[in-house]
Amino acid sequence: MDKVRRILVCVCKERASPQRALFVQSITGHFIDGGDDEVEVNCSLEKNQFVVFRGEKGGGVPLKRPAFCPIKHLSVTEAAAIPLDVQQRGVDVGVAVLLQTANQRVLLTRRAKELRIFPNVWVPPGGHVEPDETLLDAGLRELKEETGLKLEPEEVCPKILGLWESVYPPMLSRGLPQRHHIVVYMLLHSSLSHLQLQSSLSPSPAEVSACVWADGGLVRAVVSAVDGEDREVGVDDLPDTVSADGGLTDSSLPLAVFVSRAPASGPDVERVSTGTKFALELWLKSLETPDP
Questions:
Q1: Where are the domains of the chain?
Q2: Tell me, what is an example of a GO biological process annotation in this record (predicted)?
C-alpha cells in the first residue's frame, strides 16, 4: 500500500462507516438540510483519517462555510469543468493555531506574497497535518516553522474552537475551486505575555511577511467587517495604524487592512481571511465564557 502523504477528510452519518469526502462535496452541506451555513459536529483524527460526524447534541464544535462558498454554489456544469486531477484530491485537513498570550492577545501572520494560495492574507500560524501527527503536534510544528516560536505540548492548554470549510479561490467569481480544506482552529493558551514571547519571534520570510499581536479591540473591529456584507465596521476609536512585530519590513500597518472585506471579483486584497474572522469571533466568545 502506498504511504499516506496527506490527511483527508472523511464524513460519517449516524452509524455508517466513514467515507472519504469528494472534492466537490460540501462538508457543511453534508450535515444540514436547506441553505444553512453552520452546523455542530464532532471530529476525530484516527489512522490518518480526519472524520467529521454528528455526535450527541451539545458536545461538538461549530463547522461553518461562508455564504458565498464556491462548493455550495457549484453547478453540475462547473463541477464537470474542474480538472480531474483536482477532483481526485479529496478534501485536505489543516490546523491553525490561535495563540493566546497571558495578557489576552492573539498572534496573526501575513502570508508571504509569493505563496500560491491566499497570498498577502492575514491568518493565524498553521498548515497541513502530516501523517501520524496529532492536531496539536501539527499546530506546534507549524507555529515553530512559520514564526520561530517553540512551545512544548505540556506548556499549552489546547482547545478546538471550530472547523472552517475553506475553498480557494474563495468565490466562484474568481474561478473554479483549486483547493478544498477543512481548517481546524485550535486555541492554545500561553502563560507568557506577548512581550515575553516577542523575543523568540523569528518569522520565516518564505511563509510570513509580517506579524501582529492583536488585542481584543482590534479583533472586535476585524470580526465586524463581515465578508459578503456591507454593514458598518466598528473601529471603536482605534488608531489608524497597527504596530507590526517580528523584525520584518513593516513596522506599522494601516488599520484599513484589518477591516478590509473579500472582494467579489478582481484581484484579492490584503485582508484578514474569512475563516480567521470566524475563529476570532469564537475566541472573543471564549473570553466571555471561560472554561471552569
A1: 8-288
A2: NADP+ catabolic process
Could you tell me the three cell numbers for 61?
Answer: 464544535
List, for the chain, all residue ranges whose pLDDT scores fall below the cut of 50: 1-3
Q: Which residue type does 134 have?
A: T
Is 8-288 a CATH 3.90.79.10 domain? Answer: yes
The three cell numbers of residue 74 are: 457549484
Output the pLDDT for position 142: 97
Per-residue pLDDT of 38-87, as tens digits, reads 999 999 998 999 999 987 776 799 999 999 999 999 999 999 999 999 99
> Hunting for cell 512559520 — which residue is that?
146
Angle, helix 216-224 to helix 274-288, in steps of 10 degrees: 130
Residue listed under C-alpha cell 502530516 = 130
Give the helix ranges, DSSP H, for the chain: 27-30, 70-73, 76-81, 84-87, 135-147, 194-198, 216-224, 255-258, 274-288
Q: How many whole angstroms separate alpha carbon 179 and alpha carbon 176? A: 9
Query: Is the bond preceding residue 169 a cis peptide, omega within 30 degrees?
Result: yes
Q: Residues with Cβ < 8 Å from 217, sequence gap 6 or more?
A: 236, 238
- What pLDDT does residue 248 have? 59
CA 217 to chain centre: 20
C-alpha–C-alpha distance, residues 262 and 170, integer Å: 9
Dihedral, CA atoms, 12, 18, 23, 24, nearest 10 degrees?
-40
Cell matching residue 150: 517553540
End-to-end, the C-alpha distance of the chain in Å comes to: 46
Q: What is the pLDDT of residue 1?
A: 33
